[in-house]
């Protein structure tokens, strides 16, 4: 069932009203810990991604402008064996974490489909979208939990940039924009429990599993065919473009809840719509930057 966007939901959209929406419930996996429950609510304050993202972007800009980076001079520590093994640990750790997230969220999707499904029509449109969109399905079976940790991981991933800068190399616009935007996009998706954020978590955790495995091998000086790197970049572009289109489609999805027999919109709050808009707007320039990188790195390099 495809339908037009509800005018009541979007015609009077207000960012202030979105921020006034109640915080999502703490994941049941964290609810028994006062510390983790507090951290969950505190870290979803909009000032967290705005502050960290701004500090990160400004710091990268200033470091890129330094004489050391202009001369491509690594710091002394970057030449040590300890630095190399810390990089291996960083890449291997993110590879394993991403794999854990991917497997976990797939199990959550499976569970959501099982509890949402209509036994008389287990493979119907309504069952499929009900499992992704209903607040009582995928969100509670694991998206809230795995998505929250994935959101926090976006802050840690700036270590990638720190490694690049430590080696005396400048951080590209793609690198800086990618990390800064991911912080805010994941924040919006989790803060407003926006159904399309499942796409970010599923696709990105899979790509990162492969990507950080590749980085682990290259850090260990294990030769990897160049075509693998090109294929990885192609997969990232496919993820961004395909994921963006799939995410945007959620704004037009209406499904029938087989328990209440009512037709429901996939997006039910202004906050969920705002989160979707943030992600789609973020992905558009990101796709351009990745495509430009692919052309510069592989097409032009091959012709030269």
Automatic annotation (TrEMBL):
Gene Ontology cellular-component terms listed: endoplasmic reticulum membrane
The keyword Ribosomal protein is assigned to this record: no
Coiled-coil annotated spans: none
Topology of the protein relative to the lipid bilayer: Multi-pass membrane protein
GO terms assigned for molecular function: fatty acid elongase activity
Membrane spanning stretches: 46-64, 85-109, 197-215, 227-253, 273-295
Keyword terms, alphabetized: Fatty acid biosynthesis, Fatty acid metabolism, Lipid biosynthesis, Lipid metabolism, Membrane, Transferase, Transmembrane, Transmembrane helix
GO BP terms, alphabetized: fatty acid elongation, monounsaturated fatty acid; fatty acid elongation, polyunsaturated fatty acid; fatty acid elongation, saturated fatty acid; sphingolipid biosynthetic process; very long-chain fatty acid biosynthetic process
EC id: 2.3.1.-
Subcellular location: Membrane
Organism: Yarrowia lipolytica (strain CLIB 122 / E 150)
Annotated Pfam families: ELO (PF01151)
Catalytic activity as recorded in UniProt: an acyl-CoA + malonyl-CoA + H(+) = a 3-oxoacyl-CoA + CO2 + CoA
Family per similarity comment: Belongs to the ELO family.
The protein's name: Elongation of fatty acids protein
């Amino acid at each position: 069932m495809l339908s037009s966007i509800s005018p009541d939901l979007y015609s009077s959209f207000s960012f202030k009203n979105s921020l006034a929406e109640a915080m999502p419930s703490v994941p049941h996996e964290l609810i028994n810990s006062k510390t983790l429950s507090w951290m969950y609510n505190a870290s979803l304050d909009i000032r967290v991604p705005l502050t960290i993202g701004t500090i990160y972007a400004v710091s990268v800009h200033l470091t890129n402008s330094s004489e050391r980076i202009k001369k491509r001079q690594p710091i002394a520590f970057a030449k040590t064996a300890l630095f190399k093994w810390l990089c291996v640990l960083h890449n291997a750790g993110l590879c394993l974490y991403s794999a854990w997230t991917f497997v976990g969220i797939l199990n959550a999707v499976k569970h959501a489909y099982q509890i949402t499904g209509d036994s008389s029509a287990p493979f119907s449109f309504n069952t499929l979208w009900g499992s992704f969109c209903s607040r009582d399905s995928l969100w509670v079976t694991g998206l809230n939990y795995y998505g929250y940790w994935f959101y926090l991981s976006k802050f840690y991933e700036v270590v990638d940039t720190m490694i690049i800068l430590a080696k005396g190399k400048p951080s590209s616009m793609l690198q800086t924009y990618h990390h800064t935007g991911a912080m805010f996009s994941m924040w919006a998706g989790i803060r407003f429990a926006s159904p399309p954020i499942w796409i970010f978590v599923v696709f990105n955790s899979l790509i990162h599993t492969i990507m950080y495995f590749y980085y682990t091998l290259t850090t260990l000086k294990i030769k990897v065919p160049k075509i693998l790197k090109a294929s990885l970049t192609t997969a990232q572009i496919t993820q961004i473009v395909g994921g963006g289109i799939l995410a945007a489609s959620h704004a037009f999805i209406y499904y029938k809840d087989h328990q209440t027999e009512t037709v429901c919109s996939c997006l039910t709050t202004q906050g969920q719509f705002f989160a979707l808009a943030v992600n789609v707007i973020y992905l558009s320039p990101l796709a351009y930057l990745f495509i430009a990188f692919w052309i510069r790195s592989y097409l032009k390099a091959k012709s030269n």
